[in-house]
């Protein structure tokens, strides 16, 4: 796809609609979103998000295993294509324009996206001063400098189709198809010494010379400023459709394998620490048989799908080379059901948009498309992970282009929230959304990466979590450190409030929490209802229709209140002296606002008594507790401090 950095671009969308997987081409215009307007955070009362009496209600049970860490969530799943975001952890420069990009003069080729012309699009779209358009490599250095400024991982696409634009002189006629004077041959290794600036009359564009320039400028990928990864071109199965002036004939399996091995070897010989991403396939039919590759039958007897062939041959080539040539299996994934990607926000399409993310993982889901009709269950991420395990173990997985559309509609935001949660749960290493991250899409990123407006991020230790209703809801759970439990919750039902009943399985007890939410009212993140967990392990929480929530739950201390004089608790609030005498005495340090409330709960979580302290009486004395001997929970809210302690009443 074309590099999204503002303005309007045209890309060729390929729909494969019959059982024989024949290709039909259709051209879609993608409008790139401009810079998003400023986002804010609005404080709402607890009832504004938690109670919506105008709607019906559905009950859903959620469970979280707080003891079992499945894996570390890669920080690189919160990536973008080209766009510089405060919340983006990774950036990719890729798309159709990079296939014909010439680093020596920054010319590139539009292909079928825009009249097959050579031009200055790349430096222009990057915002580079026109006086610098001819400076070698400035598109790549500008991109990476922005990544460094945002502390983001850079993935740079290299050329593998054989030719790059030599000039910027506009439309390339069919009669000027490569090789012709309009093109420079792309060669992996230069036969002579490297030069800078490069010699534009030496007969080739040399990949190793470009890599040498980047290494001299930034250091290796292992260093603090180095470029971390390189991609083996972009969507090669579509070259005859997107770039017929560069690569007019159908790509064969043998050609792609040879080109991939050769370019990977060049990258690793220049920078062994850099990661290689490939084969950057556009979608299912490329995974299946490399877009009906002419020589697929020579391989299909040993492999069910081309992606398995690719992994096995890259593994064998790595064994021969004595080094890993493919670090990351790189694919693109766009929704096929009609209207989803194009941004249709009618209710019928919006409901499909919020469900079709299940094709990423769910073996019970049949998406309404030709893929769902003929290849269910799709569950594409588990399939790809299984292929990796079988053919090239320890290869990482990336989805470097995806887009569920509708950035201006809550359904687009909820699909994005769901996708990010799925990527974390299913061990993706890298993901970068295609197109502008704006409006509801930006809110989805912020829900994970800046939920409270002060840098609060979703945890990085993935935990098992389940819902009793996968059609209407989703849940993702993670620890952040040792004290906080993060939950991402989604209600994709259009009409009904979701009454969530939560069970936290594990030894740790949690006392309280906060929430933030995206709703259909606007694209802002709202501070929502507080969470009270009386027994430490179960609680209820309501989700309005079409909303996503980020809950942060806090562990309670293991301190036990006995009939002895009580110790000061970590919050700075002290409890004095003898609950056995049915008197409780709470004293607050001067620096703590003591306005709040105190409640007492039995072991089942049932509230027995609550005392409000709206005027901030200090110390607060609660008399006549009238509690039988046993164990209780004492919950204190004092200003911005909250805690729960066990209270043991002696005989």
Automatic annotation (TrEMBL):
Organism: Eiseniibacteriota bacterium
Pfam families (UniProt xref): Glyco_hydro_44 (PF12891)
Protein name: T9SS type A sorting domain-containing protein
Domain of life of the source: Bacteria
SUPFAM superfamilies reported in the protein's UniProt record: (Trans)glycosidases
Glycoside hydrolase family 44 catalytic domain mapped to chain residues: 108-336
């Amino acid at each position: 796809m074309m590099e999204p950095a503002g303005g309007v671009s045209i890309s060729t969308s390929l729909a494969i609609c019959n059982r024989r997987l024949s290709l039909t081409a259709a051209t879609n215009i993608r409008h790139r979103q401009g810079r998003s307007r400023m986002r804010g955070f609005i404080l709402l009362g607890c009832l504004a998000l938690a109670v919506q009496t105008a709607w019906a209600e559905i009950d859903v049970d959620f469970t979280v295993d707080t003891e079992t860490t499945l894996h570390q969530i890669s920080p690189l799943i919160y990536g973008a294509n080209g766009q510089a975001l405060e919340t983006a952890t990774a950036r990719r420069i890729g798309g159709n324009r990079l296939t014909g990009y010439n680093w020596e003069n920054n010319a590139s080729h539009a292909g079928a996206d825009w009249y097959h012309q050579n031009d200055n699009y790349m430096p222009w779209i990057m915002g580079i001063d026109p006086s610098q358009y001819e400076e070698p490599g400035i598109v790549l250095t500008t991109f990476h400098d922005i990544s460094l400024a945002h502390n983001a991982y850079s993935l740079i696409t290299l050329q593998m189709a054989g030719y790059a634009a030599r000039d910027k002189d506009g439309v390339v006629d069919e009669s000027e198809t490569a090789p012709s004077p309009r093109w420079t041959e792309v060669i992996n290794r230069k036969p002579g010494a490297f030069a800078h600036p490069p010699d534009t009359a030496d007969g080739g564009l040399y990949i190793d010379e470009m890599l040498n320039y980047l290494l001299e400028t930034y250091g290796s990928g292992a260093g603090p400023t180095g470029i971390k990864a390189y991609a083996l071109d972009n969507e090669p199965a579509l070259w005859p459709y997107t770039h017929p002036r560069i690569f007019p004939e159908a790509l064969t399996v043998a050609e792609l394998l040879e080109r991939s091995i050769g370019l990977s070897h060049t990258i690793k010989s220049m920078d062994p620490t850099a990661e290689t991403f490939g084969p950057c396939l556009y979608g299912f039919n490329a995974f299946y048989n490399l877009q009906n590759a002419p020589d697929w039958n020579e391989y299909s007897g040993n492999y069910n799908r081309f992606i398995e062939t690719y992994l096995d041959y890259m593994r064998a080539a790595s064994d021969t080379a004595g080094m890993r040539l493919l670090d990351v299996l790189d694919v693109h994934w766009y929704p096929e059901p009609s209207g989803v990607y194009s941004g249709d926000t009618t209710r019928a399409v919006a409901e499909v948009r919020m469900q079709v993310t299940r094709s990423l993982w769910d073996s019970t889901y049949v998406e309404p498309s030709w893929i769902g009709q003929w290849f269910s269950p799709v569950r594409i991420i588990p399939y790809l992970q299984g292929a990796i395990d079988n053919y090239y173990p320890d290869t990482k997985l990336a989805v470097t282009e995806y887009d569920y559309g509708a950035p201006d509609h809550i359904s687009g935001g909820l699909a994005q929230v769901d996708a990010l949660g799925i990527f974390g749960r299913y061990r993706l290493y890298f993901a970068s959304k295609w197109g502008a991250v704006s409006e509801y899409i930006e809110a989805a990123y912020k829900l994970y990466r800046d939920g409270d407006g002060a840098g609060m991020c979703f945890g990085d230790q993935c935990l098992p979590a389940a819902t009793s209703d996968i059609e209407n809801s989703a849940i993702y759970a993670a620890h952040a450190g040792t004290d906080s439990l993060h939950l991402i919750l989604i209600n994709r039902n259009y009409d009904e409030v979701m009454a969530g009943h939560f069970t936290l399985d594990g030894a740790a007890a949690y006392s309280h929490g906060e929430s933030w939410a995206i709703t259909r009212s606007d694209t802002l993140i709202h501070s929502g209802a507080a969470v009270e967990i009386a027994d430490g392990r179960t609680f209820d929480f309501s989700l309005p229709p079409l909303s996503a929530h980020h809950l942060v739950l806090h562990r309670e201390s293991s301190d036990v209140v006995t009939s002895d004089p009580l110790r000061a608790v970590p919050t700075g609030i002290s409890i004095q002296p003898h609950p056995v005498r049915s008197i409780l005495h709470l004293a607050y340090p001067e620096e703590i606002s003591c306005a709040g409330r105190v409640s007492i709960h039995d072991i089942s979580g049932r509230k027995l008594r609550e005392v409000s302290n709206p005027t901030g009486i200090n110390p607060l004395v609660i008399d006549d507790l009238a509690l039988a001997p046993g164990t209780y929970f004492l919950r204190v809210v004092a200003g911005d401090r909250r805690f729960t302690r066990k209270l043991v009443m002696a005989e």
